[in-house]
Design brief:
mainly beta, binds copper (II) ion, disordered N terminus, 45% strand, six-stranded mixed β-sheet, globular, binds CU-O-CU linkage
């Protein structure tokens, strides 16, 4: 039969209809052992675990409202899963092994498919033995682009990690060290950006860049200083600030993200830097050698990003207020806590690798910390009764810290310093069971883990 115009249109639209099915296919995301040149070239590559066998794993980039579809293939010698950190995701796709799904055994697969409601900087990592799997290199960036992204000369993702190396740049095999677990966690002796110990990017004076900083370390709080830039924070943990804030330094706790707009002010021949102070002085984290002059004039502060569709807080004055007391750890003075339905002395708990508690309770209980009705505004009043900072992360939601000036910016991970109290509020609008835990992964593994239920 001859193909006339009408038939052709019918055939073409049939093809168009067929397309979403094809687009619904899953791209492989293979968790596997590999090698990475994390240390300087005079060292052999470090054996790691990574997505695609590399550090970092492949960057996932999608436009706001779009869909991520990945088939996790587990080629590790351990069970694993993938958590999409900071995405307000459907509960079944949250990737929490033993809670929202069964752990994926070696040789098996799991299909993750979900929509991304919010633009911003997110990331993914395992949620099974996370303290070991992330330290070995399993993580990657998940970037959700705004439909109309801000005008910049470049958009760079910097996944900042620290590694605990032996003298030969292999990973120091102290996984499970109770000393680390009871103190500040596994703190490394080598810092990389995107798996590179000497990360550099050439720039020109006057260029405007968007830098997306992500802390993928197990437990290190990065105190970063910016040199050779004029810089504004435009988003925290993916969520835009209502007003960009000019800064020269920033704190990046484990799992946190900061989006910056920076204008290069260093002159040609100089180098702009991101630096971390240490006992000896300042340590280079990332270097931006300046090769030329793009623009002379100072530019205006960047405009704010469009807010994401996060529901506004209800009346916080009348909202339910739930206390969460953090206890335990070295120098914490915790005498005893509940575990598996019985009171145990801190000494006996330590024998089982448990060192920290929330509200006198070690690890997850059978019943949630909070049962929220969908749409309810909840306040959690956190008290850090320990000698250590904690990076508190809530799954499936973003929250605001309540302060004297009212609710602060949206975040999904909040650093609570020792002896500090911090109150957060959020709208429990995402149905399902959601973890609330310390993102210092050794603390989470040794007790600092609870959950909420939204129904
Ligand atoms: Cu980034 Cu429960 O995790
Ligand atoms: Cu902690």
């Amino acid at each position: 039969m001859p193909m006339n115009r009408r038939h052709f249109i019918a055939a073409a639209s049939a093809m168009a209809l067929a397309r979403p099915a094809a687009a619904g296919r899953y791209t492989d995301l293979i968790a596997a052992p590999g090698q990475a040149q994390l240390a300087p070239p005079e060292y052999d590559p470090t054996p790691i675990w990574g997505y695609g066998g590399a550090v970092p794993g492949p960057e996932i980039r999608v436009t706001q409202g779009g869909r991520v579809a990945r088939r996790l293939i587990n080629r590790l010698p351990q069970d694993t899963s993938v958590h999409w950190h900071g995405i307000r995701i459907a509960n079944a796709m949250d990737g929490v092994a033993g809670m929202t799904q069964a752990a994926v055994p070696p040789g098996s697969t799991f299909d993750y498919g979900f929509e991304v409601p919010d633009a911003g900087t997110y990331w993914y990592h395992p949620h099974n033995k996370t303290w070991e799997q992330m330290a070995r290199g399993l993580y990657g960036a998940l970037i959700v682009e705004e439909p109309e992204p801000p005008q910049v000369d470049a958009d760079e993702v910097l996944l900042i990690d620290d590694w605990l190396f032996d003298a030969d740049a292999t990973l120091f095999d102290s996984f499970g060290s109770l000393r680390d677990w009871s103190h500040g966690g596994r703190i490394g002796n080598w810092v990389t950006v995107n798996g590179d110990g000497d990360w550099q990017r050439g720039v020109e004076q006057g260029q405007r860049l968007r830098l997306r900083l992500v802390n993928t370390a197990n437990a290190r709080v990065f105190e970063l200083q910016l040199r050779g830039f004029r810089a504004w924070e435009i988003a925290l943990d993916g969520q835009p600030l209502s007003k960009p804030r000019e800064i020269t330094a920033l704190t990046l706790a484990p799992a946190q993200r900061v989006d910056l707009i920076v204008d290069v002010t260093a002159a040609p021949g100089e180098t702009a830097h991101i630096l971390e102070p240490d006992a000896q002085g300042l340590l280079g984290v990332a270097a931006f050698p300046v090769a030329g002059l793009a623009r002379e004039a100072n530019r205006d502060a960047p405009p704010p990003l469009t807010p994401n569709p996060v529901p506004p807080l209800g009346d916080v004055e009348t909202a339910r207020r739930v206390p969460l007391r953090m206890e335990g750890g070295a120098m914490g003075g915790m005498a005893e806590a509940m575990s598996g339905g019985q009171v145990m002395s801190a000494r006996d708990l330590a024998q089982t690798g448990k060192l920290w508690a929330f509200n006198g309770q070690v690890d997850m209980q059978d019943s949630p910390l909070i049962e929220a009705a969908r749409g309810e505004t909840i306040r959690i009043a956190m008290t850090n009764d320990t000698a250590w900072p904690h990076a508190m992360h809530l799954h499936g939601h973003h929250f605001r810290r309540l302060g004297p000036e009212g609710p602060g910016p949206l975040r999904d991970t909040l650093l609570v310093h020792r002896s500090e109290t911090a109150e957060i509020a959020f709208v429990a609008d995402n149905p399902g069971d959601w973890l609330l835990h310390c993102h210092m992964l050794e603390h989470a593994a040794s007790g600092m883990m609870t959950w909420i239920r939204v129904s």
